[in-house]
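We modelled each protein-ligand pair independently. The example shown here corresponds to the guanosine-5'-diphosphate entry; the chain sequence is given first, followed by the ligand as SMILES.
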Amino acid sequence: MVENTISIIVPTYNERDNIVPLIERLSLTFSNRDYEILLVDDNSKDGTMDIAAKLAEKYPVKVLVRLSERGLATAVLHGFKYAKGNIIGVMDADLQHPPEVNAALLKAIENGADMAVASRYVPGGGCPNWGLVRRVISKGALTLAHIFLPTTRKVKDPMSGFFMFKREGMDQIEFKPIGYKILLEMLVMGNFQNVVEVPFIFEDRSSGRSKMKARQQIDYLKHIFSLMRRKGELIRLLKFISVGLSGVIVNEGILWLLTEFGGLRYYISSLIGIEASIISNFILNDYFTFADRRSGKTSSFISRLLKFNLTCATGAGIQYGLLLLFTSVVGLNYLLSNLIGIVVAFAWNYTLSLVWTWK
Ligand SMILES: Nc1nc2c(ncn2[C@@H]2O[C@H](COP(=O)(O)OP(=O)(O)O)[C@@H](O)[C@H]2O)c(=O)[nH]1
Ligand SMILES: [Mg+2]
């Protein structure tokens, strides 16, 4: 068996007090293995680079310095360029990612995984010192990724910054990350079939300061949006909207035809019109909007049709409920209230279509 070479990429910015214990602990973790550590430093002001240079005399450490660029994700990409391993790991320098967990990540890869993610959200993992607000933001961000970027669903913690992977999985990626979340980019754009998660406890920072700011939340949303665009998920949304509009025509048309020429009372033809538009929307979505997710895996045509009917029925209930709520309790104009109802019901229908009917 040819021995694997492991490259661990560690972005650093003002981590003076953390990198000595980091490198010592990594060297114990990888003792007897062919490995290198690439510190990618963006010209830290606290002497991180001098300490790193000293470490490089004793350990297989390389120091890459960028003078004119800042940013976590691009620093990691810079590290990828110089890494010589066929297995590559990424982690933070601040010891919030316990270096010893790399042993479990490497084991998972050598047992056949294409990628191993150190995860806060599998049993045994966690971030015990986080407050409620931070937890809610993190879970909200996670849910957003899971809904709109289906390839992230195979991982419970796609926002982790601590992971390891087989290099060939990223061969085809044209990286365009925004902000912090390089793993998200790799999961969505890369070729990693078998991804496993290894639990870890996200420790408190013992030294130095976090560079995380509110801007990162906005960057995250931009990144999600950019990935959706690149994966065709925005086109899907536009298709779903077009189909919905076509349903209005079907609904009105059948109501008119059956009432004028079919001899039915309008409150009967309306019910037939509604169901007909649900069915026509379903067929169009099945063959057009979600063509790529239809191909005979988990659910049959009939079960998808029933799910879509149920989704639309509850959506209509939500719309009607909001109309009543906003007119009688809040005192808004009934047309405006109805519009709010339509928007929320649309979001409901689309989300359920993504995560249930055509999941
Ligand atoms: N090279 C480089 N590293 C960075 C930059 N920002 C953060 N880091 C490093 O990325 C890791 C995670 O950053 P941190 O501020 O701890 O993020 P948090 O854990 O989400 O609060 C640490 O090792 C930082 O030193 C940057 O602009 N450039
Ligand atoms: Mg940190």
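The pocket of guanosine-5'-diphosphate (ligand 1) is lined by residues 11-13, 15, 40-42, 70-72, 75, 92-94, 96, 210-212 (CB under 6 Å).
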